[in-house]
Design brief:
Blueprint lengths: L7 H21 L6 H4 L2 H16 L4 H13 L8 H21 L1
Helix pairs in contact: 1-3, 1-5, 4-5
Length: 103
């Protein structure tokens, strides 16, 4: 359902979810090549907004992990256990979305 069609309560819940997703991203996920974007909030927030839109579609943790890996996919750097971290973050976001949908 498009954001504009949501009730006021649901809009509030979506905004709260998006704030929590941004918190998860900032504190648990540090993508390669994104550190400069943290210093440029407009660009970083744009990525988080896109992620929130993906979450809003009911995406699975695997789909979210693929989205999260996007900024790193063009990087030539190899970071051990990166895929595991991405999946953990994706699961945290999915769990958050599930809890909010039940509220």
């Amino acid at each position: 359902m498009p954001y504009d069609d949501l009730s006021a309560d649901n809009k509030t819940m979506v905004k709260e979810r998006d704030v929590l997703i941004r918190h998860i991203i900032v504190h648990y996920w540090h993508p390669l090549g994104m550190s400069a974007m943290v210093k440029a909030p407009g660009k970083y927030d744009s990525f988080v907004q896109g992620l929130c839109e993906v979450v809003g579609t009911g995406a699975s943790s695997a789909e979210l992990a693929k989205y999260l890996a996007g900024p790193e996919s063009s990087s030539k750097k190899v970071v051990p256990q990166r895929d595991e971290l991405i999946l953990i973050v994706a699961r945290k976001i999915c769990a958050l979305n599930t809890r909010l949908n039940r509220a």
